[in-house]
Amino acid sequence: MKMIIVGSVAAGTSVAAKARRNNENIDITVYNADYDISYSICGIPYFLGGEVENLSSLTPRSAAWFKDRYHVDIFTRHEVTQINIEQKNVVVKDLETGIEKIDSYDSLVLATGASPITPDIPGVDREHVFQVRTIQNTAQIDQYLTKENPKRATIIGAGYIGLELAEQLTRKGLDVTLIQRSHQVMPHLDKDMAFRVEEELRRNGVHLLLNEEATSIEEKSVHTRSGQCIESDIVIVAAGVRPNTKIAADAGVALGSTGAIAVNSKMQTNVKDVYAVGDVAESYSLITGDPVYRPLGSTANKMGRIAGDVLTGGDLEHRGILGTGILRVFALTVGQTGLSEKEAREHGYDVEVLYNLKPARADYLGGKELVIKAVADKSTGRILGVQIVGEEGVDKRIDVFATAITFKAKAEDLFHLDLAYAPPFSTTKDPVMYTGMALDNAIKNKNRLITPNELLKRMDNGERLQIIDTRAEKQYRVSHVPDALNIPLSELRERANKLDPDLTTITYCNSGVTGNAAQNILINMGIKDVYNLSGGNKNFQTYIKLKGNV
């Protein structure tokens, strides 16, 4: 059996490695247009910022190493320019000599990856304008940074790569401006969580321009749609990627609704004996079942392993993804898995939303606050998605949530998880457990929640509300919800008889715990329509700032 793999970064090499582990007799050939194989694109920003000392650290495997370890022939600087489905062969061009050849296959795997989107901006081809693509390209950026010693950088695009580069170049001493076309950074986050990232960027000196667009790039400046002129010595374009599907589409391989190659759970395309993996292939949501395109190295490796197994008689199948991602932005870590609130509502779910503000570990050991936004389906209790922002402990929690969502956990299930506890690592009720407990109570109408957005809507509509601030008077004076009555929790039982039992009542504290205690007191005293403000006054004040910036 002869297998040809087109592309050799994460997915392609994973196909080859798994196929060889399963079968010593298969003939495996890999063609790659680039110079390097199996390199870490995700590590590139950290090399440019100096956290990774040597660029070679991002290319731990060479074609020679693969030949020695797996008996796989990898031809770098060889581009597959045409696929002939009927003849089951490919046309391959040696990019160094220009010589073409035809090579036949029994099975063909497309791992052609994705390429950065190049906006149609005059000047985007100037010498000081770069995209983060390959190891060779990264070396060119590094040489430019060393030789030209730029002082001012403009980054176009505020996705993962754009944010990572904003952090790294700022730490390197450059004055960084970040331009984003949409109204927020990190489009897969809800705006109220992305806003916390935006504040962190500004706190660290990044000039953030939202709802803005670069219209031209000059030798020392970038001009924008609103008329701004941004002085720039180096420009990085990080406007997203698109799958490299041309040779596949030209050969009759079907593309899916996302624009990437459509595959089934065994990574098979519509063409017999042709497979697609990695950033060129679309996946599907574990929650909705809909096609999704989230090009990540972790997914590419998984797809490659599945295809390599299937091609050698194995029974692995792709089960879909949650789009789990994590990012560091200066002091903050940002994690996300599953559906955002916006996505869940767009898919027709009636959702319960919780903001959970809790320390990642014991307060008395310096635990720092996590902000967890969790979304659950009211009808089933199933967790649909979680977003977390915080200075520590985000990675641990987002992985627990991703695991739980994968196995279709309900909110009530989270509380019963037997998670590791010791004061240096967690709290007695871990933030994951507390999230499940509070969401379950809200879904079952034991302790109903109201978000800042919902509260403001009711206030704007003129609804009569009874809002109780349960904190000390000193905290109340610093900031509070408009029209809130300050009744500290210690006084609530004695003063509850002065409240109107027929009015919808909102309780809150700093972050939610004391507000919940007050809610229970009032419910037990006969006030039935009581909500706790999710995330408390901290979350409310952040939301007010967000509204003021929109």
Automatic annotation (TrEMBL):
<dbReference type="Pfam" id="PF02852">
    <property type="entry name" value="Pyr_redox_dim"/>
</dbReference>
<dbReference type="InterPro" id="IPR036873">
    <property type="entry name" value="Rhodanese-like_dom_sf"/>
</dbReference>
<dbReference type="Pfam" id="PF07992">
    <property type="entry name" value="Pyr_redox_2"/>
</dbReference>
<dbReference type="InterPro" id="IPR004099">
    <property type="entry name" value="Pyr_nucl-diS_OxRdtase_dimer"/>
</dbReference>
<comment type="similarity">
    <text>Belongs to the class-III pyridine nucleotide-disulfide oxidoreductase family.</text>
</comment>
<dbReference type="InterPro" id="IPR016156">
    <property type="entry name" value="FAD/NAD-linked_Rdtase_dimer_sf"/>
</dbReference>
<dbReference type="InterPro" id="IPR001763">
    <property type="entry name" value="Rhodanese-like_dom"/>
</dbReference>
<keyword id="KW-0285">Flavoprotein</keyword>
<dbReference type="InterPro" id="IPR023753">
    <property type="entry name" value="FAD/NAD-binding_dom"/>
</dbReference>
<feature type="domain" description="Rhodanese">
    <location>
        <begin position="461"/>
        <end position="545"/>
    </location>
</feature>
<dbReference type="Pfam" id="PF00581">
    <property type="entry name" value="Rhodanese"/>
</dbReference>
<protein>
    <submittedName>
        <fullName>FAD-dependent pyridine nucleotide-disulfide oxidoreductase</fullName>
    </submittedName>
</protein>
<keyword id="KW-0560">Oxidoreductase</keyword>
<dbReference type="InterPro" id="IPR036188">
    <property type="entry name" value="FAD/NAD-bd_sf"/>
</dbReference>
<keyword id="KW-0274">FAD</keyword>
<keyword id="KW-0676">Redox-active center</keyword>
<dbReference type="InterPro" id="IPR050260">
    <property type="entry name" value="FAD-bd_OxRdtase"/>
</dbReference>
<dbReference type="GO" id="GO:0016491">
    <property type="term" value="F:oxidoreductase activity"/>
</dbReference>
